[in-house]
TrEMBL record:
Function as written in the Swiss-Prot or TrEMBL entry: Catalyzes the NADPH-dependent reduction of ketopantoate into pantoic acid.
Organism: Shewanella chilikensis
Protein name listed in UniProt: 2-dehydropantoate 2-reductase
The Ketopantoate reductase C-terminal domain, residue ranges: 179-301
Highest rank taxon of the organism: Bacteria
Length: 304
């Protein structure tokens, strides 16, 4: 089984190292290199820091027009949500028609905008609560462990051997037969924690203060209105309990949206609260709280 990784950033490198440690030898597809990579690809060394250990692994890096792309059985896409379409679309004609795509970004949306372009190609989705920090282009530090959930969305189901290989390689991973529900649960957590921590410039734990309770409930109420229209079975009590639990368990952490704004980067808001807003419009619903959060985050994003 040959796996490729598109999006050789923090999470892409972490997964590459975990797959390599399990003997799966993934190929990496970095952004266009200068000078260009040789047709057969080139070995490059990547470093993973984990605690006080430093692990160096050599990976075959392929140019994005390499004929070897046709040999891939699975392409993990680990770019940011707003990069998925631009990164993946040019590659689709170069992949074998049976090559499975697994999207592993935060938020939701690209699976719908890509659907028509996949021509029946198998699509899986996933979410991870592992965490990593990119120190340089070939060097990351793992900063957190956590659950990774993967499941099939459309097309042929993932072969058992591929499923087993992925779950054995990725620590804390599990298969989800209802991946959209799992992703909506994660969306709820992100829709609360990301914008509120970024706007108020606080760590996750600060959201346990009573002053945030009304806003948290309103965000979840609006999300549930959209989820109901989408046929996603979620309950307020379960979501609310999950959000409160994540706030408690990650109290000292600063969310990715907080960090993106702090470092002057674009955020994934369009694929979190913005995704809810966009789906709500399809059903003639308005989401005042989520829309307000989107507007506030956009006002804080860098202009380019
Ligand atoms: N980092 C974490 O701890 C973490 C944890 C959980 C979930 N996530 C989610 O995982 C996703 C990836 O996050 P990340 O932190 O790994 O981001 P990242 O470090 O920015 O990695 C994304 C990588 O994709 C590359 N890329 C972008 N467009 C590309 C293209 N057209 N062709 C080839 N490569 C392209 C980027 O290259 P450039 O740098 O050159 O743009 C970058 O190396 C996000 O949705 C994030 O929310 C991250």
């Amino acid at each position: 089984m040959q796996i490729g990784i598109l999006g050789v950033g923090a999470i892409g490198q972490l997964l590459a190292q975990q797959l390599a440690a399990a003997g799966l030898e993934p190929w990496l597809l970095p952004r266009a290199n200068t000078p260009p990579l040789a047709e057969q690809g080139e070995e490059q060394v990547y470093t993973l820091e984990l605690g006080d250990q430093s692990l160096q692994t050599s990976f075959l890096c392929l140019a994005q027009d390499s004929s070897k792309l046709k040999q891939l059985d699975l392409l993990l896409v680990t770019v940011k949500a707003y990069q998925v379409e631009a990164a993946l679309e040019p590659l689709l004609p170069k992949l074998h028609p049976d090559c499975r795509i697994l999207l592993l970004h935060n938020g939701l949306g690209p699976h719908q905008s890509l659907a028509a372009k996949l021509n029946g190609r198998p699509l899986s989705l996933g979410t991870t609560s592992q965490a990593a920090l990119k120190l340089s282009s070939n060097h990351i530090r793992q900063t957190g462990r956590g659950l990774t959930q993967i499941g099939d969305l459309s097309g042929a189901p993932t072969p058992e051997a591929m499923k087993t290989a992925l779950l054995n390689a990725i620590p804390g991973s599990q298969w989800s037969d209802a991946i959209l529900e799992a992703l909506w649960q994660k969306l709820a957590v992100n829709a609360v924690i990301n914008p509120l921590t970024a706007i108020h410039r606080v760590n996750n734990g600060a959201l346990a203060a009573p002053e945030f309770e009304g806003t948290i409930c309103a965000i979840l109420d609006e999300l549930l209105q959209v989820a109901k229209q989408e046929g996603i079975a979620l309950t307020f009590d379960a979501l609310h309990a999950r959000v409160k639990e994540v706030i408690r368990l990650t109290a000292a952490n600063y969310s990715s949206m907080y960090q993106d704004l702090k470092h002057g980067r674009k955020t994934e808001i369009d694929y979190i609260n913005g995704y809810l807003q966009q789906r709500a419009e399809q059903y003639g619903l308005t989401l005042p709280i989520n829309s307000e959060l989107v507007a506030q985050i956009k006002a804080l994003e860098p202009r380019n």
